[in-house]
């Protein structure tokens, strides 16, 4: 267990370092110079050098990367005109565009993305497991067909198409709901949910299809297993077999997938956030990429990588928790 | 032969195949079709727009403009949609070809290679599978110079980031195939690794990899549309369905037709390819009578 | 008193009739064996007894203790299952739920049928686990099935069967997946619990040796119909039906000893092989003499398959050397050594024709148009020239194994290594394939290494025997001396465990086993779990 955790953490550090190097390297290959963009029109060479220094762009790329790493663990100082601005660890630098600390930008955006991810996951799991179970038990043919259709449609629609359709239907045509804007949960829970319901549905249409498919396959496979035959041969009622054996078997892959999906939505629901105008992490990334805002892009990718790595570890732990045959070592 | 017969008995597959086939033809003959319509995808027609209402088209479907015109620019919608099919399918198919090449290569190498080759290649595969690729794709596409050919670039980016699934399947199948006794028999008779790979492994990979590939194709189309929707994919004036949908978001109160045409086309085409994939899978793997797994 | 009375039972799936007019009676406390090869309908019968036949059509009558099971309601059937009739299945590895503790699974069944409290049910679970000789049953009741060895799992299933004091235990091939020594233990246990609890036993097997010592009466089935029925002592000693005679004749018999003059052809010296932390083969030294058949015998995990694969150069040894006529085996592949594999399903590429598979070794040796040669080979192994263009799935198991032999013969090797070549075949097919191998060996003056778990087969075919245990050679010598005067304790245990088709001899051996090793060596290492690294 300890060995497993150590290896996990070690692996995570390697992945995150690799990721940040790749993103850094990409930006230095980019044809645009962010200092010129920031300096704007009528920029003098002196002014440009000053801007460069303030942005931390005056050193060589490896040196800059080294500074970045130091800042991440120890904090770092930026020259700001005559003064010095201290950025405490974990420092991801300041946005070139808005001059705000990247950590603050991320912590501002994360609740939005988390709200989106958690709600969408709950909805997807409820619909997906329900539909998958009902069709996996093969009680009603017609239901089987409906779920089949749902699963195929889930594969065939891009999330922004669902989003457009929902907006058109509920906000333009029927006018049942306002155009989504983000209201923090702490401000007004009802408004929070009302504004997020459409994005949740849009994501759930796609996500629940995957869960339905997985649940159904799991239930059907479990029901065909020898130990289910044993249970039947010992008179255990069918309902109990489904609950304690079939669903249990189907749960194993589902649990791990949920952890990973949660992280994926939190970090990269770019399309959904853009579609519904939600100020989440994904939207931050799109904006930053278009502005060549290096610190923000690095920050978002690192956050994404971090979430993914953590989610994978959590998935492993959950896997070991739901399946006694699995040992972590 | 019987496989083919069973495919022809599958109504859902047939419907999908016909629609997908038509879309492929449309993409191939886009210039011919637009010439028939007497339009092209890039000419502006400001005279057809209602400037008083911010550029909404004056007319809907007309004899000249079979699907009407774009709001704001007045470009012919039919021509743009037809050329959009070209981009969408072209990018998806070329990305698929690259993905299969990379994925099968890495998967077979990992499966047949030694413990360390396998460990390194598998980790790499896991990484590309675990990481939300959209994020990297966006970063990558935003940085490369504008002058590079966009559709080709998209195909390469989608392929570079999306070969993981194929590699995982190819590796798994290779690992299972290489323990079969017929592979051992070939090696006892003196066949080398390359001969074993070519004669005993690759033919066995064809079915599982191709059934999976059938599913990647629509998924590639979704990725392309998504990237273009975000504005980092195909750039104007080259038309793309995702990009059209993106600009449609600003028009959908005033001109719903502009959302409907590319949206419906995208959905129908995707559904058609998914139905084809599903049909192929059900026939190739008769144990799995159910939908896509 | 008659406990179970089956009259004119017919079971059909689709267009096939799995069971066609089966009738028998089983007395309370009695033991009945049903013997038949695959497709005889014996398993379908077992499932029908519990109403678990699914979509199958059932006709006739099954009377259990006064209740007609074919027309019983689902609730009535459910009350009978486990409490009246308890079933022991073939695959102990998968027959228990992997998600629940062994004790809980037994307690669940007990509570369901008796309405006992949780505590009482847990105690009952421990009690029956003790009854089937699971050591430390309180602790083991809290273990998961994957923490048990194969034999222990089968014991746990028998414990589950005992939990509700059933009147009848149905055991469907209960030992087929187990090693021979474990098989003997399980059969002894079934016999013991029958005597102890007074439950009747219906024992279903493909192996005459399994039913011989454990049953009073026996039914021989073939293609869904009864061929012969009667007292076990009578049917297995003086069979009347031709098919029963065939079955008994197919049981391997010792053959007269030969004198082998050849010098060593294949030399294995000091060979070891490890897989991660597991030592598969540990310092093995042996010679294979020119012209002999060397038998290698051992149970699962003994290292015999690894050794055989090293002998043909498929796996390089970690230490030691293997030479064929003086040259390292890695450089002698193809022409000199060939292999016949166990599973005729996986040993032929399903996508290529039989002829193409046989042609491979010849093509590699430079023969460009081998069709004529191959057709002659196909005829030699008892197939038709036209089978050249068949695909493996169009052939039966026995035919595929003949193809495997033809492929091994194609490059005219000096040595053929056979890895369990007949263990997946029915007894009658097994006898035919063994006879073919022996014919070909004589005709071509081949040297043969024959790897198997089946001591009886070896006694028939081998000149010398190597007994392997835990990766090492336990004993080596001429067939006659090893079988008649075994020196090593493990060899003795193996020999005592061989199932024999003679009921008297089977009972004598059981008595010997009970006297010899009472409960010793029962709990082997648990089988591994999935590990995430």
Automatic annotation (TrEMBL), chain A:
CDD domains: TM_PBP2
Membrane-traversing stretches: 12-30, 114-137, 149-176, 196-214, 250-276, 296-322
Source species, domain of life: Bacteria
Domain ABC transmembrane type-1: 110-319
Gene3D superfamilies recorded: MetI-like (1.10.3720.10)
Keyword Ribonucleoprotein on entry: no
Coiled-coil residues: none
PROSITE patterns on file: ABC_TM1
UniProt KW keywords: Cell membrane, Membrane, Transmembrane, Transmembrane helix, Transport
Principal location class: membrane
InterPro entries: BPD_transp_1_N, MetI-like, MetI-like_sf
Intracellular or extracellular location(s): Cell membrane
Lipid bilayer topology: Multi-pass membrane protein
Family: Belongs to the binding-protein-dependent transport system permease family.
Name under which the protein is recorded: ABC transporter permease
UniProtKB/TrEMBL annotation, chain B:
Primary site of residence: membrane
Pfam family, one: BPD_transp_1
PROSITE patterns linked to this entry: ABC_TM1 (PS50928), TAT (PS51318)
TM region(s), chain numbering: 12-37, 87-112, 124-145, 151-170, 201-222, 257-280
SUPFAM superfamilies, per database record: MetI-like
Subcellular location, record wording: Cell membrane
Domain ABC transmembrane type-1 intervals: 85-277
Topology versus the membrane: Multi-pass membrane protein
Descriptive protein name: Peptide ABC transporter permease
Organism for this UniProt entry: Winogradskya humida
From TrEMBL, chain C:
ABC transporter domain residues: 4-248, 266-495
Protein name, UniProt field: ABC transporter ATP-binding protein
Gene Ontology terms, MF aspect: ATP binding
Entries under SUPFAM superfamilies matching the protein: P-loop containing nucleoside triphosphate hydrolases
Topology in membrane: Peripheral membrane protein
InterPro entries: AAA+_ATPase (IPR003593), ABC_Ni/Peptide_Import (IPR050388), ABC_transporter-like_ATP-bd (IPR003439), ABC_transporter-like_CS (IPR017871), Oligopep_ABC_C (IPR013563), P-loop_NTPase (IPR027417)
Keyword Kinase: no
Assigned keywords, A-Z: ATP-binding, Cell membrane, Membrane, Nucleotide-binding, Transport
Keyword check for Lipid metabolism: no
Main subcellular localisation: membrane
Family statement: Belongs to the ABC transporter superfamily.
Database matches in PROSITE patterns: ABC_TRANSPORTER_1 (PS00211), ABC_TRANSPORTER_2 (PS50893)
Cellular localization per UniProt: Cell membrane
Pfam families: ABC_tran (PF00005), oligo_HPY (PF08352)
């Amino acid at each position: 267990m300890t060995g497993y955790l150590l290896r996990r953490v070690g692996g995570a550090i390697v992945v995150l370092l690799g990721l940040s190097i790749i993103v850094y390297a990409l930006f230095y290959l980019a044809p645009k110079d962010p200092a010129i963009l920031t300096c704007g029109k009528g920029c003098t060479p002196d002014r440009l050098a000053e801007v460069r220094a303030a942005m931390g762009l005056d050193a060589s790329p490896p040196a800059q990367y080294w500074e970045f790493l130091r800042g991440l663990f120890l904090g770092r100082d930026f020259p700001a005109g005559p003064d010095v601005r201290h950025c405490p660890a974990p420092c991801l630098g300041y946005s070139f565009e808005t001059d705000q600390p990247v950590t603050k930008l991320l912590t501002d955006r994360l609740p939005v993305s988390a709200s989106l991810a958690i709600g969408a996951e709950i909805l997807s799991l409820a619909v997906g497991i329900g539909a998958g179970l009902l069709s996996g038990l093969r009680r009603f043919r017609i239901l089987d067909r409906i779920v089949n259709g749902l699963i195929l449609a889930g594969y065939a629609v891009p999330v922004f198409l669902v989003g457009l359709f929902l907006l058109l239907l509920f906000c333009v045509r029927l006018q049942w709901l306002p155009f989504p804007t983000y209201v923090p949960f702490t401000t007004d829970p009802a408004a929070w949910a009302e504004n997020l319901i459409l994005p949740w549905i849009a994501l759930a249409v796609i996500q629940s299809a995957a869960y339905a498919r997985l649940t159904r396959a799991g239930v059907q496979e479990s029901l065909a297993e020898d130990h289910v035959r044993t249970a039947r041969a010992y008179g255990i009622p069918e309902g109990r077999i489904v609950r304690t054996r079939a669903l249990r078997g189907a749960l194993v892959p589902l649990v791990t997938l949920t952890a990973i999906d949660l992280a994926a939505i939190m970090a990269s629901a770019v399309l959904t956030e853009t579609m519904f105008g939600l100020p989440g992490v994904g939207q931050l990334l799109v904006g930053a990429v278009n502005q060549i805002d290096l610190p923000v892009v690095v920050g978002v990718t690192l956050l994404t990588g971090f979430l993914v790595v953590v989610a994978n570890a959590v998935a492993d732990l959950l896997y070991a928790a739901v399946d006694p045959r699995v040992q972590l070592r | 032969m019987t496989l083919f017969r069973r495919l022809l008995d599958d109504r859902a597959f047939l419907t999908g195949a016909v629609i997908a086939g038509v879309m492929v033809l449309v993409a191939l003959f886009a210039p011919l079709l637009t010439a028939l319509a007497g339009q092209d995808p890039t000419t502006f027609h400001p005279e057809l727009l209602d400037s008083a209402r911010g550029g909404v088209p004056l007319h809907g479907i007309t004899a000249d403009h079979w699907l009407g015109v774009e709001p704001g620019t007045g470009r012919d919608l039919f021509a743009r949609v037809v050329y959009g099919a070209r981009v969408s399918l072209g990018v998806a198919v070329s990305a698929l070809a690259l993905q299969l090449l990379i994925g099968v290569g890495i998967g077979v190498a990992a499966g047949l290679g030694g413990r360390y080759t396998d460990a390194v290649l598998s980790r790499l595969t896991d990484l590309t599978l675990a990481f939300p690729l959209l994020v990297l794709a966006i970063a990558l596409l935003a940085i490369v110079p504008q002058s590079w050919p966009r559709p080709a670039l998209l195909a390469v980016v989608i392929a570079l980031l999306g070969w993981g699934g194929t590699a995982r399947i190819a590796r798994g199948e290779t690992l299972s195939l290489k323990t079969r006794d017929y592979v051992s028999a070939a090696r006892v008779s003196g066949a080398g690794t390359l001969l074993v790979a070519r004669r005993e492994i690759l033919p066995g990979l064809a079915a599982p990899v191709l059934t999976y590939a059938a599913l990647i194709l629509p998924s590639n189309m979704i990725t392309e549309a998504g990237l273009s929707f975000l504005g980092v994919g195909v750039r104007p004036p080259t038309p793309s369905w995702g990009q059209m949908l993106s600009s449609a978001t600003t028009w959908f109160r005033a001109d719903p037709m502009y959302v409907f045409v590319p949206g419906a086309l995208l959905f129908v085409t995707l559904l058609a390819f998914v139905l084809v994939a599903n049909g192929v899978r059900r026939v190739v793997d008769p144990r799995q009578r159910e939908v896509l797994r | 008193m008659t406990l179970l009375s089956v009259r004119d039972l017919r079971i059909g799936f689709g267009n096939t009739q799995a069971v066609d007019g089966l009738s028998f009676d089983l007395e309370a406390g009695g033991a009945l064996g049903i013997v038949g090869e695959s497709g005889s309908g014996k398993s379908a019968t077992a499932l029908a007894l519990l109403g678990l036949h699914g979509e199958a059509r059932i006709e006739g009558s099954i009377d259990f203790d006064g209740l007609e099971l074919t027309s019983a309601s689902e609730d009535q059937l459910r009350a009978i299952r486990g409490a009246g009739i308890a079933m022991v299945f073939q695959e102990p590895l998968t027959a228990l739920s992997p998600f629940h503790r062994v004790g809980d699974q037994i307690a669940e069944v007990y509570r369901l049928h008796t309405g006992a409290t949780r505590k009482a049910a847990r105690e009952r679970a421990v009690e029956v686990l003790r009854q089937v000789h699971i050591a430390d049953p309180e602790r083991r009741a809290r273990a998961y099935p994957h923490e048990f060895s194969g034999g222990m799992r089968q014991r746990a299933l028998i414990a589950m069967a005992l939990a509700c004091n059933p009147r009848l235990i149905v055991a469907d091939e209960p030992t087929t997946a187990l090693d021979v020594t474990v098989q003997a233990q399980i059969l002894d246990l079934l016999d013991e619990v029958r005597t102890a609890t007074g439950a009747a036993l219906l024992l279903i097997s493909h192996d005459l040796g399994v039913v011989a010592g454990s049953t009073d009466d026996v039914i021989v089935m073939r293609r869904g119909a009864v061929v012969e029925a009667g007292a076990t002592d009578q049917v297995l000693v003086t069979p009347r039906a031709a098919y029963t005679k065939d079955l008994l004749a197919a049981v391997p018999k010792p053959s007269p000893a030969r004198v082998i003059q050849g010098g060593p052809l294949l030399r294995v010296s000091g060979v070891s092989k490890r897989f991660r932390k597991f030592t598969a083969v540990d310092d093995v030294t042996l010679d294979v003499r020119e012209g002999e058949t060397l038998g290698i015998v051992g149970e699962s995990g003994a290292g015999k398959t690894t050794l055989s694969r090293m002998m043909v150069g498929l796996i390089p040894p970690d230490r030691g050397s293997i030479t064929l006529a003086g040259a390292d085996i890695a450089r002698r592949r193809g022409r000199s050594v060939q292999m016949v594999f166990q599973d005729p399903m996986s040993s032929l590429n399903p996508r290529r024709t039989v002829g193409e598979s046989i042609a491979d070794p010849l093509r590699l040796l430079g023969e460009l148009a081998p069709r004529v040669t191959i057709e002659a080979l196909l005829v030699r192994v008892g197939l038709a020239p036209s089978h050249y263009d068949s695909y493996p799935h169009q052939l039966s198991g026995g035919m595929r194994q003949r193809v495997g032999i033809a492929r091994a013969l194609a490059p005219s090797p000096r040595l053929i290594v056979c890895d369990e070549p007949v263990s997946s075949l029915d007894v009658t097919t097994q006898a035919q394939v063994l006879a073919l191998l022996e014919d070909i060996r004589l005709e071509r003056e081949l040297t043969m290494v024959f790897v198997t778990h089946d001591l009886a087969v070896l006694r028939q075919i081998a000149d010398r025997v190597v007994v392997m245990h835990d990766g090492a050679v336990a004993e080596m010598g001429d067939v006659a001396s090893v079988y008649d005067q075994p020196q090593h304790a493990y060899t003795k245990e193996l020999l005592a465990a061989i199932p024999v088709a003679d009921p008297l001899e089977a009972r004598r051996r059981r008595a010997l086993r009970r006297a010899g090793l009472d409960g010793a060596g029962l709990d082997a290492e648990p089988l591994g779990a999935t590990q995430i690294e």
